[in-house]
Amino acid sequence: MWVPGASQMPPSTKLCIEIILALLCQGRLCQAPVYQIQVPSRVTAQQGLCVLLPCHFTANFESSGIAYKYWFKDNDRDSSPAVATTDPGRALREPGGRIRLAGDAPDDCSLRISDVKAGDRAHYFFRFVKGDFKFSYRETQPLVDVTELTEPPVLGVPKVLLSGQLVNVTCQAPGTCSGTPPQITWTGGFDYTARNVSVALANGSVSYSSELRFTPALGDDGKELVCTVTYPAVVGVFTHRAVRLHVRYPPMLLPWGNCTVRGRGPGGAATCHCAAEGNPPPHLEWRLPDRTLPGDFEGPELRATTWARGPAVSGELRGPAGALANVSCAATNAHGQSQAALPVVPAAGFSLTLVVASAVGGSLVLVGAGAAVAWKVVKGRTSPEEGEPLRRKGEEEEEEEEEEDATRGEPLARGLRGQALVRCLAKPLTPLDLPVTCTRREGGTVMGPLGGGARPIKQWCHRPSKARIGRLKPSPLPWLEHG
User: Fold this and answer.
1) I need a labelling partner for 126 at 20 to 30 A (CA). Which of 48, 86, 105, 322 fits?
2) Where are the strands (E) in 232-311, listed by range?
3) Once rounded to an integer, what is the mean pLDDT over residues 423-447?
4) Are 282 and 354 in a shared domain?
5) Domain endpoint, select from 193, 220, 245
6) Bias regions of kind Acidic residues — which residues (predicted)?
């Protein structure tokens, strides 16, 4: 049997009262306890955030006097400083309102803790006082458990980031606490503007977020954007979330695509070259006056082949000169299309095109006709860790002789992967045969149809088999060097 105030009585007195009441209890004299409390036995909070302990209680509210509510830690006495109270004359463990009673209703004893700290972990009990009636609910002591902050912020990133188009990215801090506002910072390695946004919610809590505005560029593809949320009220508490940017852009046909013609009359043959880049990588098409051919095609007279690496795509179309007298190249992806007519260039003499296909990924597309093409990247090293040039002993003199016999072209590209200078060296050779893929040391690629009569010196270029399928077979080229 429940007896008001029994928890504060000596055991013998409590037992006597319970026996007497049990003997006298009849009908309406035996009623439910006057003081009851409804509160969860346990709530969990993360450091830096806030927690609400919902609570309602019953008592004799008809008693005269002012009602006061108190929350104490489990080992406190009724006369100890309170954790939270509505009594202005009672001392508090921690002034400032970080821990306070949240409800205004007479039967509401809800407790709110902001800027949760590890020291807040404890059992708590509620006490109610009104006039001469005083009662502490010690038999029900809920536990406030405190854990480390593991909840990351919520990032709102558009599904598609288009190069050159302004975008908004949001970062919402965990929790909706009305305590000390969190600090939200961004890192990403590009220019941006950000502003903090706070929204007051209906229940008195606050949502904190930051809005980032920036215009993605081609160079931002693959960069990591990080939002970090720091809670200054609790030392060392922060959380973050990162997202990798995928910047899309429509295809761009790279200049100097052409069709080279060898021979005259019905026996003449033509080879057309085209290169483009985009994200996602575009699909190439060859548009003739009477039909359109896909990038990879095998027919009685015409044959088309494409090579792709990263965002760069290179294509070749072969066939009779008469059938390829009027050819356009088109590149298409989900964000647009680019098309251009290819000029016809006689194969006699020297014809060369070097295209920087992707300054972002460090890729090159090399297109030549009727000539052997040599390219050299002279890079300004900034540290010895970058290694020695890809050159063997005894090759310098041999390569210098080749340069004396060759025609030195003008620099066609600068700024690739830092301080890079690309020069073209060329001299007539046999007709172009098979495609060659050369992997640059910095991770880029040279792609294009190159002659097959070179002497084997270099070991880092590969030519596919004649069937153009299967594994790559090493076929070094002597006129490719890195310095």
Assistant:
1) 48
2) 238-244, 247-253, 258-262, 269-279, 283-287, 292-294, 297-298, 303-309
3) 33
4) yes
5) 245
6) 396-405
